[in-house]
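Q: Hi! First time doing this. I have a protein sequence and I read that you can turn it into a structure. Is that right? Here it is:
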Amino acid sequence: MNDRQQRDDALAAEYALGTLSGLARLRFARRLHTEPELAASVARWQTLLAGLDSQLAPITPPEKVWKKITLSLPEKPVVQAKRSYAGWMVAASIAAIALIVQLFLQPATLSPLTVLSDTQHRERWVVSADNKLKQLSLTPLHPIAVASSNSLELWLIPAGKAPISLGLLNSNTATAIALNDRELTGTGIIAISLEPQGGSPTGQPTGPVLYSGQL
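A: Yes, that's right. Below is the predicted 3D structure, encoded as structure tokens:
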């Protein structure tokens, strides 16, 4: 028996014993389909090992062996119970509510409504509004210097009615204004006046109107 035959015989013995594993066992099993002599060697070893097995008396292992084997086994994966129909309905309801909330929380799409100009008819502010005229955004085209003792206040002046304060404005960044129950329907004017810090103390414009525009 040459070296190759000895090596193959050893592999056949390992294969019969079950100690040959992994890729080595797969490669050896493929060889058995094309190499009859190798298959005969495996059969011979299986016969020899089966004879030895029949001569051995069974021995019951001590309890500590079973405990050690149990502790060495991996934990069983937790199998989640299938959701009932009611569970799926609850999940679908939560998803629907989340979608509705997301839609309502999305920022409104604003479109330009009018432009406010100064007394020299130079455009200074862009007024944008949502499609329901419930929210405004006022953006200065150029930064505006305002003394710390003053504030810019926005007014809605409906035709034939007293001015209505819409709130204070930032002089160099966009300001969002919620109209709430105040309506922009009909004709009127939007104006910005210079007021004392914090806004008009009377609820009506007290300082000069710096910018205005027609609705």
